[in-house]
Amino acid sequence: MDDSQVETWLHELDTEDEDVIESEDDEVEPEPNLQALVRESELQENEEERSSESDELSDSDNVPLSQLAPGRRGSVYKSTNGTIWHKDIPSVTRTRTQNIRLRPPGPKGNAARSAKDPLSCFELFFTQDILEILVRCTNIYLDKIKENFQRNRDAKPTDIVEMRAFLGLLYIMGVSRSGRRNIKDFWDNSQGTGLEIVYATMSINRFRILIRALRFDDITDRETRRKLDKMAPIREVVELVTKNCRNNYVPSDYLTLDEQLVGFRGRCGFIKYIPNKPDKFGIKIFMVVDTKFPYVYNFEIYVGAQPEGPFLKSIKVNDVVHRVLDPLYDLGCNVSMDNYFTNHS
């Protein structure tokens, strides 16, 4: 073995080692970044924590608030003004005497209990004495304006029967939503808009005369009474209707007090403008209404500041509340109202 042969063998071995190393470099994957792995695992852990928290929150939606509120101490809550609210329903105790209702709610009196049709119910509130006032005061005005008519019969005096028919027509027109309809439509049968019960009751000319002449007080001394009372033209009739509302009904346990603006744009000394109401202009009325039945138990018309005299009353909210709720004292009723009526001066 000479030196040249040994050198040839060594050269072959070096060549094989280089081939093996190159092949190993091709097959081995690069070493992963340790920081990237740590960051990825942290993100996975955070996502798992969020999902577990959301699952717990969704599961706790139906859990009562009393179980979610930790550290409940005592059996009551105390508000900032000193009012105490019990957390649990108090045990059954004897009902206080003032809370015992001796009479069930509903119609009051034989006439109210025996009323079975709309006409009988209407007569409970518009009684005979009210109709007599309307007839008497309307005839006084008809006698005053009869000279303006070519025929005296056009302004002939009315009576109880005709007044009842006239009020019935007003009621039917109100049910038919006549506020935006022409009165002629109720008498026009050619186009099918007329109502037989309307044009069979009286002519349209007579209806117009009655609606023009309808009065609720004696016009001969109205100006004298108006100096002491803004509501003089309707005072007597309104008080009778209010009295009938109270006398024909026993209220239930729960009532509500609120105001209502009755739309009206005619001549009136106590028209109110309330921009947030649908009608904006009208007569403001404070009403006590039964919540169990749609019934107005008591009401008071707002007339503003009255002149000095017997009709001068305070228009402060708390005084109005006491006046309209006065008939309910000692009846064991609960009256709900908003914060407008609960401000004490």
TrEMBL record:
Residues 117-343 form the PiggyBac transposable element-derived protein domain. Residues 14-30, 43-59 have a biased composition (Acidic residues). Pfam families: DDE_Tnp_1_7. Residues 1-80 are annotated as: Disordered. InterPro entries: PGBD (IPR029526). This is PiggyBac transposable element-derived protein domain-containing protein.
